[in-house]
Amino acid sequence: MPLPEQLVIATRESPLALWQARHVQGWLQTRYPGLTVTLLGMTTQGDRILDVTLNKIGGKGLFVKELEQALTEGRADLAVHSMKDVPMVLPEGFALAAIGRREDPCDAFVSNRYASLAHLPAGSVVGTSSLRREAQLRARFPQLTVRPLRGNVGTRLAKLDAGEYDAILLAAAGLKRLGLGERIRSGIGLDDSLPAPGQGALGLEIRADRVELAELLAPFNDAATAACVTAERALSRRLGGSCQIPLAAFAEEDEGFLRLRGCVGLPDGSRLVYSEANGSCAAAEALGLQVAELLLTEGAADILDQLAGAP
Ligand SMILES: NCc1[nH]cc(CCC(=O)O)c1CC(=O)O
Predict the structure, then answer these.
(1) Phi first, then psi: what are they for 262, rounded to 5°?
(2) Same domain membership, residue 213 and residue 76
Protein backbone atom coordinates (compact mmCIF):
# COMPACT_ATOMS: atom_id res chain seq x y z
CA MET A 1 0.00 0.00 0.00
CA PRO A 2 1.53 3.37 -0.96
CA LEU A 3 1.67 5.82 1.93
CA PRO A 4 -0.28 9.03 1.46
CA GLU A 5 2.00 12.09 1.44
CA GLN A 6 -0.15 14.16 3.67
CA LEU A 7 -3.01 13.91 6.12
CA VAL A 8 -5.28 16.55 7.59
CA ILE A 9 -6.64 16.20 11.13
CA ALA A 10 -9.94 17.96 11.87
CA THR A 11 -10.05 19.23 15.44
CA ARG A 12 -11.95 21.54 17.71
CA GLU A 13 -9.97 24.56 18.78
CA SER A 14 -10.15 24.29 22.55
CA PRO A 15 -6.70 23.95 24.13
CA LEU A 16 -7.50 20.35 25.13
CA ALA A 17 -8.73 19.38 21.65
CA LEU A 18 -5.66 21.00 20.08
CA TRP A 19 -3.36 19.15 22.49
CA GLN A 20 -5.04 15.88 21.55
CA ALA A 21 -4.84 16.57 17.81
CA ARG A 22 -1.15 17.54 18.11
CA HIS A 23 -0.52 14.38 20.11
CA VAL A 24 -1.90 12.28 17.25
CA GLN A 25 -0.04 14.46 14.71
CA GLY A 26 3.22 13.77 16.58
CA TRP A 27 2.49 10.07 16.76
CA LEU A 28 1.78 9.88 13.01
CA GLN A 29 4.92 11.82 12.06
CA THR A 30 7.10 9.64 14.28
CA ARG A 31 5.54 6.45 13.03
CA TYR A 32 5.55 7.50 9.36
CA PRO A 33 8.55 9.77 8.70
CA GLY A 34 7.97 11.70 5.50
CA LEU A 35 4.23 11.99 6.09
CA THR A 36 3.07 15.60 6.43
CA VAL A 37 0.26 16.04 8.95
CA THR A 38 -1.57 19.32 9.35
CA LEU A 39 -4.45 20.44 11.57
CA LEU A 40 -7.75 21.92 10.44
CA GLY A 41 -9.17 23.82 13.42
CA MET A 42 -12.95 24.14 13.60
CA THR A 43 -15.51 25.63 15.94
CA THR A 44 -18.43 23.33 16.67
CA GLN A 45 -21.92 24.18 17.89
CA GLY A 46 -21.00 22.72 21.25
CA ASP A 47 -18.20 25.30 21.53
CA ARG A 48 -20.44 28.18 20.52
CA ILE A 49 -23.33 27.57 22.89
CA LEU A 50 -21.85 28.05 26.34
CA ASP A 51 -24.69 29.42 28.39
CA VAL A 52 -26.90 26.32 28.46
CA THR A 53 -26.05 22.97 30.01
CA LEU A 54 -25.14 20.36 27.42
CA ASN A 55 -27.96 17.98 28.22
CA LYS A 56 -30.45 20.73 27.29
CA ILE A 57 -28.97 21.47 23.86
CA GLY A 58 -28.70 17.96 22.48
CA GLY A 59 -25.48 16.62 23.88
CA LYS A 60 -22.44 14.95 22.50
CA GLY A 61 -23.19 15.06 18.77
CA LEU A 62 -22.76 18.82 18.86
CA PHE A 63 -19.03 18.47 19.28
CA VAL A 64 -18.44 16.09 16.40
CA LYS A 65 -20.89 16.99 13.62
CA GLU A 66 -18.80 19.76 12.02
CA LEU A 67 -15.72 17.55 12.13
CA GLU A 68 -17.61 14.74 10.39
CA GLN A 69 -18.76 17.21 7.76
CA ALA A 70 -15.10 18.01 7.02
CA LEU A 71 -14.40 14.27 6.59
CA THR A 72 -17.37 13.87 4.26
CA GLU A 73 -16.27 16.79 2.11
CA GLY A 74 -12.68 15.59 1.97
CA ARG A 75 -11.35 18.69 3.74
CA ALA A 76 -9.88 16.43 6.41
CA ASP A 77 -8.88 12.75 6.67
CA LEU A 78 -9.40 12.03 10.34
CA ALA A 79 -10.92 13.60 13.42
CA VAL A 80 -9.46 13.22 16.90
CA HIS A 81 -12.01 12.96 19.69
CA SER A 82 -12.16 12.43 23.41
CA MET A 83 -14.08 9.13 23.37
CA LYS A 84 -16.27 10.56 26.11
CA ASP A 85 -17.66 13.08 23.60
CA VAL A 86 -18.37 10.58 20.82
CA PRO A 87 -22.04 9.58 20.46
CA MET A 88 -22.74 5.90 21.20
CA VAL A 89 -23.96 5.35 17.65
CA LEU A 90 -21.83 6.86 14.88
CA PRO A 91 -23.69 8.23 11.87
CA GLU A 92 -23.78 5.97 8.81
CA GLY A 93 -20.55 6.11 6.82
CA PHE A 94 -18.16 6.79 9.70
CA ALA A 95 -15.92 4.47 11.70
CA LEU A 96 -13.53 4.54 14.62
CA ALA A 97 -10.16 3.52 13.20
CA ALA A 98 -8.38 3.33 16.57
CA ILE A 99 -8.78 3.96 20.28
CA GLY A 100 -5.55 5.04 21.96
CA ARG A 101 -4.12 4.04 25.32
CA ARG A 102 -6.06 5.52 28.16
CA GLU A 103 -4.82 8.37 30.36
CA ASP A 104 -6.00 8.56 33.99
CA PRO A 105 -9.74 7.75 33.63
CA CYS A 106 -10.89 9.20 36.95
CA ASP A 107 -12.59 12.42 37.91
CA ALA A 108 -10.46 14.93 39.76
CA PHE A 109 -11.25 17.14 42.73
CA VAL A 110 -9.98 20.68 42.19
CA SER A 111 -10.15 23.32 44.88
CA ASN A 112 -8.04 26.17 46.22
CA ARG A 113 -9.13 25.59 49.81
CA TYR A 114 -10.01 21.96 50.38
CA ALA A 115 -8.12 18.71 49.91
CA SER A 116 -10.93 16.36 48.91
CA LEU A 117 -14.69 15.90 48.70
CA ALA A 118 -14.72 14.53 52.24
CA HIS A 119 -13.11 17.75 53.54
CA LEU A 120 -15.82 20.05 52.16
CA PRO A 121 -18.03 21.59 54.87
CA ALA A 122 -21.80 21.24 54.52
CA GLY A 123 -23.24 23.76 52.06
CA SER A 124 -20.05 24.02 49.99
CA VAL A 125 -20.68 24.83 46.34
CA VAL A 126 -19.34 22.28 43.86
CA GLY A 127 -19.24 23.07 40.14
CA THR A 128 -20.10 20.50 37.49
CA SER A 129 -22.51 20.36 34.57
CA SER A 130 -22.27 16.64 34.14
CA LEU A 131 -25.48 14.87 35.21
CA ARG A 132 -23.34 11.80 35.91
CA ARG A 133 -21.12 13.66 38.38
CA GLU A 134 -24.07 15.52 39.86
CA ALA A 135 -26.15 12.38 40.56
CA GLN A 136 -23.27 10.55 42.20
CA LEU A 137 -22.22 13.58 44.22
CA ARG A 138 -25.73 14.31 45.49
CA ALA A 139 -26.27 10.67 46.40
CA ARG A 140 -23.03 10.36 48.35
CA PHE A 141 -22.55 13.91 49.64
CA PRO A 142 -26.11 15.25 50.07
CA GLN A 143 -24.85 18.08 52.28
CA LEU A 144 -23.10 19.72 49.30
CA THR A 145 -24.62 22.16 46.80
CA VAL A 146 -24.11 21.45 43.09
CA ARG A 147 -24.03 24.41 40.66
CA PRO A 148 -23.69 24.25 36.87
CA LEU A 149 -20.27 24.89 35.35
CA ARG A 150 -19.51 24.92 31.64
CA GLY A 151 -16.76 26.01 29.29
CA ASN A 152 -13.31 24.78 28.43
CA VAL A 153 -11.08 23.39 31.14
CA GLY A 154 -9.32 26.79 31.42
CA THR A 155 -12.61 28.67 31.73
CA ARG A 156 -13.78 26.32 34.45
CA LEU A 157 -10.58 26.76 36.44
CA ALA A 158 -10.87 30.55 36.07
CA LYS A 159 -14.40 30.42 37.51
CA LEU A 160 -13.13 28.41 40.46
CA ASP A 161 -10.28 30.88 40.98
CA ALA A 162 -12.73 33.79 40.84
CA GLY A 163 -14.43 32.33 43.90
CA GLU A 164 -17.67 31.18 42.28
CA TYR A 165 -17.24 27.65 43.64
CA ASP A 166 -15.57 26.00 46.62
CA ALA A 167 -14.50 23.11 44.40
CA ILE A 168 -15.03 21.81 40.88
CA LEU A 169 -14.94 18.35 39.34
CA LEU A 170 -13.10 17.71 36.09
CA ALA A 171 -11.70 14.72 34.23
CA ALA A 172 -8.15 14.07 35.45
CA ALA A 173 -7.12 13.21 31.87
CA GLY A 174 -7.84 16.67 30.50
CA LEU A 175 -5.96 18.42 33.29
CA LYS A 176 -2.96 16.14 32.96
CA ARG A 177 -2.78 16.52 29.18
CA LEU A 178 -2.83 20.29 29.52
CA GLY A 179 0.01 20.22 32.04
CA LEU A 180 -2.41 21.25 34.79
CA GLY A 181 -2.06 18.09 36.85
CA GLU A 182 -0.84 20.11 39.83
CA ARG A 183 -4.34 21.64 40.09
CA ILE A 184 -5.68 18.22 41.13
CA ARG A 185 -6.03 18.18 44.90
CA SER A 186 -7.14 14.55 44.92
CA GLY A 187 -8.31 11.88 42.58
CA ILE A 188 -11.93 10.93 43.19
CA GLY A 189 -12.26 7.24 43.95
CA LEU A 190 -14.32 4.98 41.71
CA ASP A 191 -16.79 4.47 44.56
CA ASP A 192 -17.46 8.20 44.79
CA SER A 193 -17.54 9.03 41.09
CA LEU A 194 -17.53 6.29 38.49
CA PRO A 195 -16.21 7.78 35.21
CA ALA A 196 -18.09 8.33 31.95
CA PRO A 197 -17.93 5.79 29.13
CA GLY A 198 -14.69 6.39 27.25
CA GLN A 199 -13.30 8.94 29.70
CA GLY A 200 -9.54 9.43 29.29
CA ALA A 201 -9.30 7.69 25.91
CA LEU A 202 -8.78 9.26 22.47
CA GLY A 203 -10.53 7.98 19.36
CA LEU A 204 -9.65 8.47 15.70
CA GLU A 205 -12.67 8.80 13.46
CA ILE A 206 -12.54 8.38 9.68
CA ARG A 207 -14.91 7.81 6.79
CA ALA A 208 -15.79 4.11 6.75
CA ASP A 209 -14.79 3.83 3.08
CA ARG A 210 -11.16 4.85 3.78
CA VAL A 211 -9.86 1.31 4.24
CA GLU A 212 -6.22 2.23 3.52
CA LEU A 213 -6.36 4.99 6.12
CA ALA A 214 -7.83 2.61 8.71
CA GLU A 215 -4.81 0.37 8.17
CA LEU A 216 -2.41 3.28 8.62
CA LEU A 217 -4.05 4.33 11.90
CA ALA A 218 -4.53 0.84 13.33
CA PRO A 219 -1.22 0.82 15.27
CA PHE A 220 -2.50 3.76 17.36
CA ASN A 221 -5.08 1.35 18.80
CA ASP A 222 -4.47 0.00 22.29
CA ALA A 223 -6.24 -3.36 22.52
CA ALA A 224 -6.91 -3.24 26.28
CA THR A 225 -8.28 0.32 26.16
CA ALA A 226 -10.36 -0.51 23.09
CA ALA A 227 -11.91 -3.52 24.87
CA CYS A 228 -12.72 -1.41 27.95
CA VAL A 229 -14.24 1.39 25.91
CA THR A 230 -16.19 -1.08 23.76
CA ALA A 231 -17.78 -2.58 26.89
CA GLU A 232 -18.52 0.85 28.39
CA ARG A 233 -20.09 2.12 25.19
CA ALA A 234 -22.18 -1.02 24.70
CA LEU A 235 -23.59 -0.56 28.21
CA SER A 236 -24.34 3.09 27.55
CA ARG A 237 -25.88 2.41 24.12
CA ARG A 238 -28.23 -0.22 25.58
CA LEU A 239 -29.49 2.38 28.08
CA GLY A 240 -29.94 5.03 25.39
CA GLY A 241 -26.69 6.68 26.50
CA SER A 242 -26.27 10.37 26.01
CA CYS A 243 -25.36 13.13 28.41
CA GLN A 244 -29.07 13.57 29.14
CA ILE A 245 -29.02 10.63 31.53
CA PRO A 246 -26.82 10.34 34.60
CA LEU A 247 -24.88 7.26 33.56
CA ALA A 248 -21.39 6.01 34.37
CA ALA A 249 -19.56 3.01 32.95
CA PHE A 250 -16.02 1.99 33.64
CA ALA A 251 -14.07 -1.14 32.70
CA GLU A 252 -10.62 -2.33 33.73
CA GLU A 253 -8.60 -4.95 31.90
CA ASP A 254 -6.42 -7.61 33.47
CA GLU A 255 -4.87 -10.47 31.51
CA GLY A 256 -7.53 -10.60 28.85
CA PHE A 257 -10.46 -10.13 31.21
CA LEU A 258 -12.62 -7.11 31.94
CA ARG A 259 -14.34 -5.95 35.07
CA LEU A 260 -17.13 -3.59 34.02
CA ARG A 261 -19.01 -1.42 36.51
CA GLY A 262 -21.99 0.71 35.64
CA CYS A 263 -24.24 3.11 37.45
CA VAL A 264 -27.41 5.03 36.63
CA GLY A 265 -29.16 7.57 38.81
CA LEU A 266 -31.50 10.49 39.08
CA PRO A 267 -29.83 13.92 38.88
CA ASP A 268 -31.02 14.84 42.38
CA GLY A 269 -29.22 11.81 43.78
CA SER A 270 -32.38 10.33 45.30
CA ARG A 271 -31.75 7.10 43.41
CA LEU A 272 -28.55 5.49 42.22
CA VAL A 273 -28.26 1.89 41.02
CA TYR A 274 -25.00 0.07 40.54
CA SER A 275 -24.05 -3.21 38.87
CA GLU A 276 -20.95 -4.98 37.68
CA ALA A 277 -19.78 -8.15 35.97
CA ASN A 278 -16.63 -9.74 34.55
CA GLY A 279 -16.03 -11.15 31.09
CA SER A 280 -13.38 -11.71 28.48
CA CYS A 281 -12.05 -8.88 26.31
CA ALA A 282 -13.16 -10.84 23.26
CA ALA A 283 -16.76 -10.51 24.46
CA ALA A 284 -16.55 -6.85 25.53
CA GLU A 285 -19.72 -5.87 23.73
CA ALA A 286 -21.72 -8.70 25.33
CA LEU A 287 -20.38 -7.75 28.77
CA GLY A 288 -21.62 -4.21 28.26
CA LEU A 289 -25.08 -5.48 27.38
CA GLN A 290 -25.03 -7.87 30.36
CA VAL A 291 -24.26 -5.11 32.87
CA ALA A 292 -26.87 -2.91 31.20
CA GLU A 293 -29.48 -5.65 31.73
CA LEU A 294 -28.41 -6.03 35.37
CA LEU A 295 -28.79 -2.29 35.86
CA LEU A 296 -32.24 -2.34 34.24
CA THR A 297 -33.48 -5.05 36.60
CA GLU A 298 -31.86 -3.29 39.58
CA GLY A 299 -34.00 -0.20 38.93
CA ALA A 300 -32.48 1.60 35.96
CA ALA A 301 -35.60 0.84 33.88
CA ASP A 302 -37.66 2.78 36.37
CA ILE A 303 -35.12 5.62 36.53
CA LEU A 304 -35.04 5.92 32.72
CA ASP A 305 -38.86 6.06 32.66
CA GLN A 306 -38.82 8.83 35.23
CA LEU A 307 -36.21 10.76 33.26
CA ALA A 308 -38.18 10.33 30.03
CA GLY A 309 -41.29 11.67 31.72
CA ALA A 310 -39.51 14.65 33.26
CA PRO A 311 -39.92 18.04 31.58
N1 LIG B 1 -16.91 17.02 28.47
C2 LIG B 1 -15.71 17.68 27.98
C3 LIG B 1 -14.55 16.75 28.06
N4 LIG B 1 -14.38 15.77 27.16
C5 LIG B 1 -13.25 15.08 27.51
C6 LIG B 1 -12.72 15.66 28.64
C7 LIG B 1 -11.53 15.22 29.35
C8 LIG B 1 -10.58 14.30 28.61
C9 LIG B 1 -11.03 12.88 28.49
O10 LIG B 1 -11.95 12.40 29.16
O11 LIG B 1 -10.39 12.18 27.67
C12 LIG B 1 -13.53 16.74 28.99
C13 LIG B 1 -13.35 17.68 30.10
C14 LIG B 1 -13.86 17.20 31.45
O15 LIG B 1 -14.82 16.43 31.54
O16 LIG B 1 -13.31 17.66 32.46
Answers:
(1) -135, 160
(2) yes
Question: In this model, does residue 105 exceed pLDDT 60?
Answer: yes
Q: Which residue, judged by its Cα, is nearest atom 5 of ligand 1?
A: 82
CA angle 93, 95, 96 (to 5 degrees): 165
Which atom from ligand 1 is nearest to the alpha carbon of 196? 10
Residue nearest to atom 6 of ligand 1 (CA): 174
Buried b (16+ CB within 10 A) or exposed e, 76-111: bbbbbbbbbbbbbeeeeebebbbbbebbbbbbbbbb
Active-site residue (options: 77, 85, 166, 192) = 85
Coil, strand or helix at 188: coil
**What is the rounded distance in angstroms from the CA atom of residue 270 to the CA atom of residue 199?**
25
Q: What type of residue is 69?
A: Q
User: Is 306 domain-assigned?
Assistant: yes
Are 73 and 217 found together in one domain?
A: yes
Per-residue model confidence as pLDDT tens digits over 185-227: 999 999 999 999 999 999 999 999 999 999 999 999 999 999 9
CATH code for position 287: 3.30.160.40
Q: Does the predicted model carry a pTM greater than 0.90?
A: yes
85 has catalytic annotation? yes
Domain that holds residue 301: 222-311
Q: Which residues line ligand 1 (CB under 6 A)?
A: 82, 84-85, 153, 170-171, 173-174, 199-200
C-alpha 12 to ligand 1 mean position (Å): 13
- Check whether residue 92 and residue 7 sit in a common domain: yes
